[in-house]
């Protein structure tokens, strides 16, 4: 079997410092070597290289924010139930409608986040 050095060819390229820095940072953020990143870019044929780590971090932030929203809603519901006799029925009806919309949007968002997560993993 041939040695890898016999199969691979060396290419020397001159880059502007900004381009080199950008490539180095991109390779570091993706967790691949500079050579591997360049091979990926050359073989991608129009497809894009996705920073899955960045996407997963963004999903984590969205999920954390959603947890805070849900906590706030629970606190509001607790106060509403505590002072139920002082709140008009119209407000409760409005709350129920808004809560239904929120739950629908939340479930839809969770569905898409799960699809994105599965596609990345």
TrEMBL record:
The UniProt entry, under Pfam families, shows: NikA-like
Which InterPro entries does this chain map to? NikA-like
Q: Which domain of life is it from?
A: Bacteria
**Could you identify this protein by its name?**
Plasmid mobilization relaxosome protein MobC
**Organism of this sequence:** Algoriphagus confluentis
Taxonomy-wise, where does this protein's organism fall, top ranks first?
Bacteria, Pseudomonadati, Bacteroidota, Cytophagia, Cytophagales
